[in-house]
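Here is one chain, start to finish.
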Amino acid sequence: MIRIGAVAYAPYVVTIFEGIKRHFQSQQLDLDWVLYSNYDALVEAFVTREVDLAWNGPLAYVKIRRRLQEPCKVVAMRDIDVGFTTHFITQMDSPVQRVEDLVGKRFAFGSQGSVQAGLLAYYYLKHGGVHPERDLGQYTFHEQRPQTGQSDEAAVVALVAAGEYDAGAVSGYALKKLRAKGRFPEEKVRVFWSSPPYSHCCFTAQRELDDNLAQRITAAFASMNYADPAHKEVFDLEGCWAFVSGTPEGYDTLEAAAKEEGLI
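Its structure:
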C-alpha cells in the first residue's frame, strides 16, 4: 500500500485524491490518501515516515529536504508547476526599467504566505540591490491592505494599474490566468523584470522508495489524460492540464530565501 499525504486546503481535495486513487488502482498500484490540517503537519508526517508520498507546496518540500539526511525524490508535479516565474510590474509610462529604479518607490507584494509573490519576490528585490526595508519608499503585503475580494496577485495588478503603487510582484501563472480572462490591463501595466524559472508544488517520495516503484508512480501520474472525464475533474480542480515528471529546479533559491527570513 502506497500512502500519500496532502493538506486539506479545500473540501474538493477529497475528490482530487479519490480520482488519483482510482487511476492508480487501474495501473495496479495500491494507493490510499490521508489529509493533514497544515503543511507543517504534512512535513512532520513525511519525515517520520507516516506517508510514502506527499503533495507538497514548495516551502514544505524545502523543509522536508532540510530535515532529511538523504535527498527525497520529486516524482511528479502539475504541468503548471514546471518553469514557474516571478515578475515585477509597473505602469506603462513609468520611468522604472530595472530593479535598481525601485529605490524610493511604493511596492505591492502578494500574500505573506505566497512563495512566488511574497517570499521569493522579497528575496529577488534584496539580491537585485533593493532592500525593501531600507530602500523602498513603502511596501505592503496583501494582508496589510484593504481587502477587495480579489486574489492577492490580481489585487497587485489592480493597485499598480490604478497608480496606488509604483510596482508590484506577480507570478507568470497569475499573469497568464488574468490575460486569459481579459483582466490584465495591457494598456496600463507592463512587466519590467522576470525571474529565472523554478519549480513550484511537487509530489515527493521517500528516498527509500524502490526506483522501479518510483518510476511506476511517475508513469501513473503522467498517464492521466485530460480527455478522460474522470481525469479532467482532477485536473480542473488542480488548475492544470496534466501531471508531468518532477524537477527540482530552483528549490535551492527558495531554500536560501526561506533561510534568510528565518522560515527554516
